[in-house]
Amino acid sequence: MIAIVGGTGPEGSGLALRWARAGESIIIGSRDAERAQARASQIAQTVGLLGSVEGAENTTAVKTCDIVVLAVPFAGQAELLKQLKPSFRPGTVLIDATVPLAAAVGGRPTRVLGVWQGSAAEQAAEIVGKNVSVAGAFHSLSATVLQGDQPVDCDVIVCSDDDRARQVASELATKIPGVRAIDGGKLENARIVEAMTALLITLNIRHKVHGAGWRVTGLGI
User: Fold this and answer.
1) Nearest CA among 87, 66, 19, 74 for reference residue 165
2) Is 52 part of a structural domain of the chain?
3) 93-97, 103-107, 143-147: range with lowest mean pLDDT
4) Count: domains in the chain
5) What percent of the chain is modeled with pLDDT above 90?
6) Non-local CB neighbours of 58 within 8 Å, separated by 6+ positions
7) Distances 198 to 10, 18, 140 between C-alpha atoms, Å
8) Domain containing 157 — which CATH number?
9) For a FRET experiment, which of 28, 43, 100, 171 has its CA 20 to 30 Å from that of 17?
């Protein structure tokens, strides 16, 4: 089962929808269990019998699953992970999709904040500790496109210091039609990928679209 913390938001619920369609079992996590259950019910009605979607309070969702996807605004990332740290099972894979946009402190969404650890993903790894394997991924997928039913024209760059976490994130990426998983190397490279997401927002604004994404060419995959 896959817990999506922040699963009631546009990005988290979009990922839940796509993975449920692929036959995965999903638990939508939220601070408000009733809100999580309501969103899970909406997604379940959309996907029918293809997958299983439930809703729960964040702590319950994390305790239940060995794979946790974090899809929350940067402003709440650190505090939330500190609260959830005791709930992670040893060996859990945490996939962090957080982007440290300046909007978190009232700035522009087209700029990123400097993070002491280097990136939001590295900050997540520092907080949850060595018993949890962390990958940075899914930063570039448009929430608007994920909410639809067409293939997603975008690559997902996966950064991690742990081979298993990289594999899990990559396999989840390829369950979304149209998406390729690209090995982005060490977790420290997540700082580059996170910054690229701010550029995607700029492109969306300038070109008046909602689904700009990245494709990596020349890799032969």
Assistant:
1) 66
2) no
3) 103-107
4) 1
5) 88
6) 5, 29, 30, 31, 80, 83, 84
7) 17, 23, 9
8) 3.40.50.720
9) 100
Q: Which of 8, 19, 4 is nearest to 42 (CA)?
A: 8
Angle of CA points 15, 101, 149, to nearest 5°: 20
Strands 93-96 and 67-70: parallel
pLDDT confidence bin for 109, thresholds 50/70/90: confident
C-alpha–C-alpha distance, residues 179 and 141, integer Å? 9
The C-alpha atoms of residue 208 and residue 67 are separated, in whole angstroms, by: 35
Q: Do the domain assignments include residue 70?
A: yes
107-146 in b/e form (b: 16+ CB < 10 A) is eebbebbebebbbbbbbbbebbeeebbbbbbbbbbbbebb
In a domain, 216, yes or no: no
Tell me the residue range of the domain where 139 lies.
66-207
Place of tokens 């420290």: 188
**What would the two tokens of residue 117 be?**
């650890």
Does residue 10 fall inside a structural domain? no
Q: How many other C-beta atoms can be found within 10 angstroms of the C-beta atom of residue 215?
A: 9
